[in-house]
């Protein structure tokens, strides 16, 4: 049944030196809902969805949402898909039978493991399909290196049924374009398939896309600059379903929870574009509507999202977040100096004391900040590390992450780097450094773009030092005073330690013994941590009603 050409096992740099596939980014189109005749399913054919990972912790912090959305997109005629998240446990290839379909979702960081999984599945005689952000950017790579029969670009919610139907007929196309679907086409996730005792926070998406254009981020290019906001109904249904099961902490997997700024509205008004201004006010009103409904959910629920710092301008919005119990938000601070912010096209952020005040505004309105900082910018100097940790402490951010500059495909930074590299390509055991995700992890450099004054090792060691200082036990205990009960403080300490073990030690460290130890302790911290975040299931919980005419009374931004 497998009539496709054999998979190339060797890496051909010539095939991979092509420029970032902008056509795949820019030509994403909106698609019609697939109108398919029901497929005749070969007997015994099963659908598998695999989230690849080199490291398995037994317990994971956040659910990979795509698994449960694609499960929802799988027509009932195919039966419930078999879900394997390798951050929990590794795939057992023996679970795959000839003729099954194996859908693998990849981002850049797990693409190489994804390709291994793809080859394993193909060797078992399955149809192999790649999707996710990395497959959207490099659809051909999975076909060449991952044993794939097909690659799906863009959103999978609508196109997945067509892919499955083609596999059932034994005729998958090599390439599908799922496009950027409209918000009303977003599917609710199949939370009934969530394995018991595995995750700390499930994730629900309320909005996709971001109007900004930060140089290190691919969201605005892949998900688009037009924020696609889901109706509150679907979001609330999912959250109620999760609370019924006993989850009270929920991560909102949003690119930017604050899609409309005062400046956006002001500009539309100044340009005399009343239609645009009204549209923006409506988008904003719908955010208030969602938050109003979240506020009606049980009082023990807590949400967490990602937002731009500009939200500090809108205290009505922050107060609504507080009422909705959106208690935390990842805020991309990135750099603490003006030059650093300019370097990443993020000069809409403030620096210095103004930055401290802005971050404190979130806190003053009951929204805790997970500050995200980048090290390795050309403007960074050795004293930037101390200055950053001092600022994070002064601004009283509750959590922080310190990431090293990584040129992710599809970003402005990546394209610039690729242009420079094209003149004199650097190879690691035959693989161009601009395809670093294909370099085996044990020989993969930790930093890719050379820094004008510091070595990569210096940046890595200083970054590790910042994590160590920010997450020292004394510092974490001091910060834990933001929660009142002893149980709450204990949960805070555990989640802080877990976060550091999972992201800093296993991510930045080049020392394999240190990595192994971090992996081991993350496994053991994760288990008790999970219990602290659960609540008694509420199977009878009702869906909160939408306050009539709420949209009409939502606060209008006066700019
Ligand atoms: C929530 C989130 C997180 C959360 C939760 C992660 C998790 N476990 O799910 C946290 C905060 C922990 C996180 C961490 C990181 N993240 Co993150 N994250 C996101 C975010 C905002 C949303 C992801 C999400 O759940 N979307 C909802 C689901 C439904 O959408 P989806 O995954 O895109 O899936 C759809 C399609 O892609 C497609 N699809 C996906 N898989 C498949 C498979 C098949 C077979 C098919 C057909 C289709 C298909 O169909 C799905 C439904 O439409 C995205 C941004 C984004 N817009 O994607 C960044 C994003 C994925 N993260 C990114 C990065 C860089 C990271 C970090 C490396 C950051 C860091 N430096 O530490 C870490 C890595 C963690 C890890 N090891 O995975 C980048 C990835 C870039 C890249 N090229 O890989 C993104 C794109 C953001 C960005 N700034 O560019 N992240
Ligand atoms: S980093 Fe954040 S603000 Fe910047 S483009 Fe990406 S999602 Fe938007």
Could you explain how this protein is built, in words?
The chain has 559 residues and is α/β, with parallel strands linked by helices. It has 21 helices and 18 strands. It has a six-stranded parallel beta sheet, with helices on both faces. The chain is globular and about 65 Å long. The chain binds cobalamin (B12) and iron/sulfur cluster (SF4). Iron/sulfur cluster (SF4) binds next to helix 8.
The dominant shape is: globular
* End-to-end C-alpha gap: 63 Å
Report on the biggest sheet: 6 strands, parallel
Gyration radius, rounded: 23 Å
Helical content band: 25-40%
Please report the total strand number as a whole number: 18
What ranges have pLDDT less than 50 throughout 5 or more consecutive residues?
1-34
Named once each, the bound ligands are: cobalamin, iron/sulfur cluster
Spatial strand sequence of the major β-sheet: 3-1-4-5-6-7
Mean pLDDT: 87
Q: So how many helices? A: 21
Strand content: 5-15%
Structural class: alpha/beta
From the structure provided, what is the oligomeric state, counting identical versus distinct chains?
A: single chain
């Amino acid at each position: 049944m497998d009539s496709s050409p054999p998979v190339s096992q060797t890496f051909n740099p010539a095939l991979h030196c092509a420029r970032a596939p902008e056509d795949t980014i820019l030509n994403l189109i909106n698609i019609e809902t697939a109108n398919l005749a029901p497929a005749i399913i070969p007997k015994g054919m099963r659908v598998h969805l695999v989230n690849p990972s080199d490291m398995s912790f037994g317990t994971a912090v956040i659910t990979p949402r795509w698994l449960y959305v694609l499960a929802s997109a799988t027509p009932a005629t195919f039966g419930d898909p078999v879900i394997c998240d390798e951050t929990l446990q590794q795939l057992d290839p023996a679970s795959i039978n000839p003729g099954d379909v194996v859908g693998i979702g990849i981002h850049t960081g797990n693409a190489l493991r994804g390709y291994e999984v793809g080859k394993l599945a193909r060797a078992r005689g399955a149809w192999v399909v790649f999707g996710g952000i990395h497959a959207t950017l490099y659809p051909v790579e999975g076909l060449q290196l991952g044993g794939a029969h097909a690659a799906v670009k863009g959103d999978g919610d609508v196109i997945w049924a067509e892919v499955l139907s083609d596999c059932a007929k034994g005729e998958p196309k090599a390439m599908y374009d799922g496009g950027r679907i409209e918000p009303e086409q977003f599917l609710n996730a199949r939370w009934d398939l969530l394995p018991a005792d595995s995750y700390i926070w499930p994730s629900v998406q309320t909005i996709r896309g971001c109007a900004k254009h930060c140089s290190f981020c691919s969201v605005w290019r892949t998900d688009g600059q037009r924020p696609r906001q889901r109706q509150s109904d679907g979001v609330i249904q999912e959250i109620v379903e999760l609370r019924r099961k006993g989850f009270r902490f929920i991560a909102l997997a949003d690119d930017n929870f604050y899609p409309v700024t005062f400046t956006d509205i002001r500009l539309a008004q100044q340009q005399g574009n009343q239609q645009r201004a009204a549209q923006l006010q409506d988008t904003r009103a719908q955010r208030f509507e969602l938050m109003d409904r979240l506020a009606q959910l049980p009082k023990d629920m807590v949400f967490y999202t990602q937002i731009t710092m500009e939200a500090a301008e809108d205290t009505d919005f922050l107060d609504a977040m507080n009422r909705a119990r959106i208690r935390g938000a990842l805020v991309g601070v990135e750099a603490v100096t003006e030059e650093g912010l300019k370097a990443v096209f993020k000069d809409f952020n403030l620096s210095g004391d103004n930055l401290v005040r802005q971050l404190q505004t979130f806190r003053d309105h009951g929204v805790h900040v997970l500050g995200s900082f980048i090290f390795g910018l050309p403007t960074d100097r050795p004293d930037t590390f101390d200055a950053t940790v001092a600022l994070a402490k002064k601004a009283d951010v509750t959590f922080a992450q310190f990431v090293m500059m990584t040129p992710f495909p599809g970003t402005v930074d990546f394209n610039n780097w690729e242009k420079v590299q094209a003149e004199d390509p650097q190879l690691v055991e035959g693989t161009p450094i601009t395809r670093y995700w294909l370099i085996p992890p044990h020989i993969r450099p930790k930093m890719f773009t050379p820094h004008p004054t510091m070595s990569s090792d210096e940046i890595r060691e200083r970054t590790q030092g910042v994590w160590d200082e920010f997450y020292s036990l004394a510092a974490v205990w001091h910060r834990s005073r933001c929660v009142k009960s002893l149980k709450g403080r204990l949960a805070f300490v555990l989640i802080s330690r877990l976060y550091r073990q999972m992201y800093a030690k296993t991510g930045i460290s080049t020392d394999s013994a240190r990595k192994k130890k971090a992996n081991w302790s993350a496994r053991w911290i994760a288990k008790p941590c999970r219990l602290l975040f659960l609540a008694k299931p509420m199977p009878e919980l009702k869906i909160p009603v939408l306050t009539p005419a709420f949209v009409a009374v939502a606060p209008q931004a006066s700019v």
